[in-house]
Write a structure and sequence with these properties.
Blueprint: H1 2-12, H2 35-39, E1 46-49, E2 55-61, H3 67-70, E3 75-77, E4 80-83, E5 88-89, E6 97-104, E7 110-112, E8 121-126, E9 132-139, E10 142-149, E11 155-157, E12 172-173, E13 179-184, H4 224-234, E14 237-242, E15 249-250, E16 256-262, E17 268-274, E18 289-295, E19 300-307, E20 325-329, E21 336-342, E22 356-362, E23 370-375, E24 378-386, E25 389-396, E26 401-407, E27 417-423, E28 433-434, E29 436-438, E30 444-446, E31 454-459, E32 462-463, E33 466-467, E34 470-475, E35 481-486, E36 491-498, E37 505-512, E38 518-523, E39 530-531, E40 546-553, E41 559-566, H5 572-575, E42 578-583, E43 587-589, H6 592-595, E44 622-625, E45 630-632, H7 643-660, E46 664-674, H8 676-687, E47 693-697, H9 721-727, E48 740-745, H10 755-767, E49 772-777, H11 787-806
Parallel strand pairs: 42-44, 42-46, 43-45, 46-47, 47-48, 48-49
Antiparallel strand pairs: 1-2, 2-6, 3-4, 4-5, 6-7, 8-9, 9-10, 10-11, 12-13, 13-14, 14-15, 16-17, 17-18, 18-19, 20-21, 21-22, 22-23, 24-25, 25-26, 26-27, 28-31, 29-30, 31-34, 32-33, 34-35, 36-37, 37-38, 38-39, 40-41, 41-44
């Protein structure tokens, strides 16, 4: 093991000569080996099961795109990021697919699809009969609609580069598979509006005494030029594109169609059409909108609602816009529209016996809508089944409560029957969710048992010893469930699909600590499963990594845990303590018992990718991954009012445990995290001396810049000034006397983690004499995607730890344990 550490030092330390300091030219550095080699290893294909369960599409993908792809043009408009060159999602938002083959489930034979060199595509979609797969190909001038035939393996183009995927890259099949509903660039659209170089006047916003708080949003419209660009790129023509040839049929006039959904019968389309006035304060989803139903000619046959600008939604999590929302088709009926409306004005702070009301309306949409069911809490989701059964889920954020209600859709207005209520953060007693089966029209409904008296459920099966996914049978009459199959050690095996009505045969995805995930065919009655795919281990060097779940408690008795990773060949008795990095992300709870639930990962196949901190195991570091950092607000208390105290207690307990185990020493501990984990990192350095250094990626450090709530905090800054102040490491920057590495994507798109957060935090640290390095990754969003960015991020992290953690303690003041 000592040789391993010396080798890691030899690999890492020469790179210090390339540190970017002062006015030295900036260039991308690459991660040390074997990390760089793993980053260049293609990942296994993504499987997609056909609706008929007879075939699997194997979708090849590149590992990490080059930075040149992220350098393609990008517009940020009304909460979206698009590529104006192809009128689709920006490359920072999508992962292109690059290969396709079809595997027969019964014979296991694989038929590759011949695609042209350099072919890349996205948004694959199965036809309802499972005979074809549609997808969008990216070319230089736009997006083309293609379709591949399962039987022949042939792929062909259905349109030129005309697809408009600005709002959504998805396409939808007609129930008979004869055509696809697509959004196209309107004919004769012309060139995009030129951005004015000289402003025509000031940008003015005004509020006449109306209370309209909004949480922080990214990529909003800023001026009249942005409005013109938004209207240009997002206006689309709905059309039906035939699969067998023939002319494309336009459906109505072009418009800002943000949502479009075919009824299961294929006769109607539910549409959301945005309209002016646009807003500079909220994203497009809250712009004024018409909710309409049209026929396949494009005529409006029903208007559900005409919604105003919704920029005044209260910031509390269970608050919602007023008016119809979640408009959708019942999956089990040909032409029944369903939606939800708040009965409390959308304001969760108001007292109300009924929070939401579900409405239903059948074609031809001439009768008044009927109340389907009244709900005491906010509607979360509905699983449609059949005429007499659907399952409605409601949620209540303040106490993390979820209620499951069985309703009889054939009796609109009848009260539902509560099947259970639970804390949705609770892991051990998670009953799972209904399993679904496809209808002939291509929609998905509850998979009932063959006798119709029950339904199949699947869940994660979390236990102290690991996760063991299960299939259960829920009795509709009693609401009781019985597990009829469950994975067992040493495997983690989840059910992808039931292959028959009674669930006797299943398609599963199985993995273990040493076996990568692959698809298997399994007979529930017993016997060995049949392997369907054979995806290899993408990083065999990690097979020797040691992994164990460790548990410990903080002083108030809350159970904590983390996964301890140790480099291959390490022996704690022989090799002694290692430099150790803790990588964490805090979470808020309302129940200490739920916060303390422990689940081992012993039966999971763990391999790092992208910018994972686990790569540092190859450089001789120990890692405590996801040491739980619960912030508990029991009995109605606000968790964040004691955030700092609880966070330090969590971290101190973790540090005490790894030192007690002999795998780390107090003078060589580092803390790190991404996003809210970066925020945590800065706070721990400000409020304790537990760690010698920290790594903070894409974080937020000044909560006055997110004044209308952040993470799970629902109060505004003016309602909780002491909490916002105490939780902001920016406030306590003078107390940070340990070195800290800040990394941030230049184009961060995450709400609240604007790049200015790191920019101003760095200035504050520098202005107060701290040891700090600030790295901005060009073109990157909240997560870093480019190969160059990933390699450089890992180089920075490894170099930083070599400088400030691996070096002897005399190189820097050894921090004492404990809180300040």
């Amino acid at each position: 093991m000592k040789k391993l550490i010396l080798l890691a030092c030899a690999l890492a330390l020469p790179s210090l000569a390339f540190a970017q300091t002062g006015d030295a030219p900036a260039r991308y550095m690459d991660a040390p080996q074997p990390i760089a080699r793993i980053l260049d290893t293609p990942p296994p294909p993504v499987p997609s099961v056909s609706p008929t369960r007879t075939h699997v599409a194997l979708l090849g993908r590149a590992n990490l795109p080059p930075i040149a792809e992220l350098a393609e043009p990008e517009l940020r408009l009304a909460g979206y990021r698009i590529n104006p060159r192809n009128n689709g999602p920006a490359n920072s938002r999508i992962g292109w697919l690059n290969a396709l083959s079809f595997q027969d489930v019964a014979s296991r034979a694989v038929r590759p699809v011949a695609l042209p060199a350099g072919f890349r595509f996205m948004a694959p979609s199965w036809s309802p009969d499972g005979r074809r797969l549609a997808f969008l190909r990216g070319v230089e001038t736009g997006l083309e609609l293609w379709v591949a035939e399962v039987a022949s393996g042939q792929a062909r183009r259905l349109t030129g580069p005309r697809v408009n995927a600005a709002f959504d890259p998805g396409v939808e099949w007609l129930p008979d598979g004869s055509a696809l509903l697509v959004r196209l660039v309107p004919e004769g659209r012309g060139a995009a509006p030129a951005s004015a170089q000289v402003p025509s006047g000031p940008i003015v916003q005004e509020n006449a005494g109306r209370t309209a708080p909004v949480r922080t949003y990214q990529d909003l419209l800023r001026n009249a030029g942005d409005e013109a660009l938004f209207a240009h790129y997002f206006t689309a023509q709905l059309a039906l594109v035939p699969v067998g040839g023939g002319p494309i049929r336009n459906l109505g006039a072009p418009g800002l169609v943000s949502e479009a959904s075919l009824s299961p019968s294929g006769r109607y389309i539910s549409q959301t059409r945005l309209k002016r006035p646009f807003s500079y304060n909220v994203p497009a989803e809250l712009f004024p909108a018409e909710l309409v139903v049209t026929d396949l000619v494009g005529r409006v046959v029903h208007r559900v609602a005409d919604l105003p600008l919704r920029d005044d939604v209260p910031i509390q999590f269970d608050s919602v816009p007023q008016g119809p929302r979640e408009v959708h088709w019942r999956a089990d009926r040909p032409e029944t529209l369903v939606w939800v409306e708040a009965q409390d004005g959308g304001d969760i702070r108001r007292q109300a016996a009924i929070r939401d009301r579900m409405f239903t309306l059948d074609a031809p949409f001439t009768a008044p809508p009927r109340t389907l069911v009244d709900l005491a809490d906010r509607h979360a989701f509905t699983f449609w089944g059949r005429e007499d059964f659907a399952l409605v889920l409601t949620r209540r954020f303040n106490d993390r409560n979820e209620t499951r209600i069985a309703i009889d859709p054939s009796r609109p207005g009848s009260p539902g029957r509560v099947l259970l209520s639970r804390n949705f953060q609770e892991r051990y007693a998670n009953p799972g969710l209904p399993m679904l089966r496809p209808t002939p029209a291509g929609h998905y409904v509850i998979h009932f048992t063959a006798d119709g008296r029950g339904l199949f459920m699947s869940g994660p099966g979390a236990t102290r010893e690991g996760e063991f996914p299960f299939v259960s049978r829920l009795d509709l009459a009693t609401g009781q469930s019985e597990r009829i199959w469950q994975a067992a050690m040493p495997y983690y095996e989840s059910v992808v699909a039931l292959l028959d009505d009674n669930g006797a045969h299943m398609l599963t995805r199985r993995e273990s600590k040493t076996e990568p995930p692959n698809l298997f065919l399994r007979d529930r009655a017993g016997g060995e499963p049949v392997r369907l795919t054979d995806f290899p281990d993408p990083a065999p060097i990690f097979a020797g990594v040691q992994r164990e779940l460790i548990t410990y408690r903080r002083p108030d008795g809350v159970q904590l845990s983390g996964t301890l990773y140790l480099p291959p060949g390490y022996d704690r008795a022989r090799d002694g303590p290692l430099p150790l990095l803790m990588w964490a992300y805090p979470a808020e709870f309302t129940d200490a018992a739920v916060a303390g639930q422990v689940v081992d990962t012993v039966n999971r196949f763990v391999r790092p990718g992208g910018i994972s901190h686990l790569f540092l195991l190859t450089q001789g570091y120990a890692i405590l991954d996801n040491p739980t950092m619960p912030i508990v607000g029991a009995n109605g208390a606000e968790p964040n009012d004691t955030y700092v105290q609880q966070l330090v207690a969590d971290a101190q307990a973790a540090a005490d445990e790894v030192v007690r185990l002999g795998v780390a020493s107090r003078d060589r501990l580092a803390i790190g995290g991404h996003s809210y984990g970066a925020f945590m990192t800065a706070n721990l350095l400000a409020h304790s001396d537990i760690f010698r250094t920290g790594i903070a990626r894409s974080g937020a450090y000044n909560r006055t810049l997110t004044p209308f709530g952040f993470q799970s905090e629902q109060r505004s800054y003016w309602e909780a000034i002491p909490t916002y102040t105490e939780m902001s490491p920016f406030t306590h920057v003078r107390r940070i006397n340990e070195p800290i590495l800040l990394i941030h994507g230049e184009n961060d798109d995450n709400s609240g983690t604007f790049p200015i957060q790191s920019e101003r935090f760095y200035a504050a640290l520098k202005g107060n004499g701290a040891t700090v390095r600030y790295v901005v990754l060009p073109l990157e969003a909240h997560g870093y995607r480019a190969r160059e960015s990933a390699g450089h991020t890992l180089w920075e992290m490894n170099r930083w730890l070599d400088l400030h953690l691996r070096a002897p303690a005399t190189a820097a003041p050894a921090p004492a344990a404990g809180a300040r």
